[in-house]
Amino acid sequence: MSDAIEPLLECVEVQTQSAPGASIIWLHGLGADGYDFVPLVRELQALGAPAARYVFPHAPERAVTVNGGYVMRAWFDILGADIDRREDATGIRQSQGQVQALIEREVERGTPRSRIVLAGFSQGGAITLQAGLRQREALAALVVLSAYLPLASTVAAEITAAGRAMPIFMAHGREDGVVPIDLAQAARAALTGLGCSVQWHPYAIPHSVSQEEIQDLARFLGEALK
């Protein structure tokens, strides 16, 4: 388990009111940046999602092996097509520490842990599970979109009581050619087997986010932050 507090990542922030009582830390996917999901805030608010401070960190830049060593924003290296078998454990745990530092900052800014949601898409969703399942105190919820469970062989030994206590929103496209839905289904089964409460939402989409998914997510956030 990673206990180190890493330097704070640069972030994009959007507040939906002057003093929101909740924070949503949202992790982007491979090769994107913190701006990627900023447009989603307005859509979620229009659908009734609670007021919040949205924090969109930029992942560090690193060489990604599967992309020929090209340097891009990535939460960890992708070593090959078998993303769940050959894993960059060092990078995954480093990002876990960096995300933990952002959670601690939100607490210092006055947001209770019970009012913090950790969310992510693809690689960001994998880090959401990596960090979220190892929390010492429960957050409001975890949101995992088009992702899988990283370092799966370590989870049973490292998951905390707080990690089991948080509701998890998992969504995935049936036609996802980047992160096959089989990996998400395996993650769901593993989490359920460990006692986690998982809301599972499959959609007829590729590696993307749909309007129906956004509607379901707005409803989930309303329940988690009521």
Task: Spell out the key features of this protein.
single chain; 226 residues; alpha/beta; Rossmann fold; two-stranded antiparallel ribbon; 9 strands; 35% helix
Task: Explain what you see.
The chain contains seven helices and nine strands, in the order E-E-H-E-E-E-H-E-H-E-H-H-E-H-E-H. The mean pLDDT is 95. The protein has a single domain, classed as Alpha/Beta hydrolase fold, catalytic domain (Rossmann fold). With 226 residues, it is α/β, with parallel strands linked by helices. The protein is globular, with a radius of gyration of 16 Å. The longest helix is centred in the middle third of the chain and has 20 residues, at 89-108. It has helices at residues 38-46, 89-108, 123-132, 152-158, 161-165, 181-193, 211-224; strands at residues 11-15, 23-27, 53-57, 61-64, 70-73, 116-121, 141-145, 167-173, 197-203. The chain has a seven-stranded mixed β-sheet with strand order 1-3-2-6-7-8-9, with helices on both faces. Helices cover 35% and strands 21% of the residues. Helix 1 crosses helix 7 and helix 2 crosses helix 3.
